[in-house]
Amino acid sequence: MRMLTVRQPWAALIVAGIKDVENRPWTTRYRGGLLIHAGRKTDAEGFELMEQLGVALEGPLLHGVILGSVNLTDIRRDSPSPWARLGENHWLLADAQPAVRPMTAIGALGLRPAPAGWEQAFAA
């Protein structure tokens, strides 16, 4: 399992299964489970796009925690998703699963190994 830090509201949209593409300037050979970590910063562009698409989220946006997980199935540059940005690599995401108990974690750039004890975020 790997972890990816994503700014809010993008992280919450991914974990809710609403946003099926994560845009990145870089690519990876990795495919499989990804923990979605909500970074400490917010991206105003996310709220603007949510409004344009008529998408809403319930509850407060958490920061600095593992919010859930997804499966990274492929990376392409031609996704038809409304979340895909031209000129970026489109990380195709599926099987969103919110954490039962969001777990505090330290974010960082890039794709990295999951922190020790990450499974606790998904334990009932």
UniProtKB/TrEMBL annotation:
Bilayer-crossing regions: none
Top-level taxon in the UniProt lineage: Bacteria
InterPro entries documented for this protein: ASCH_domain, PUA-like_sf
SUPFAM superfamilies linked to this entry: PUA domain-like
ASCH domain sequence ranges: 4-90
Protein name: ASCH domain-containing protein
Originating species: Thermocatellispora tengchongensis
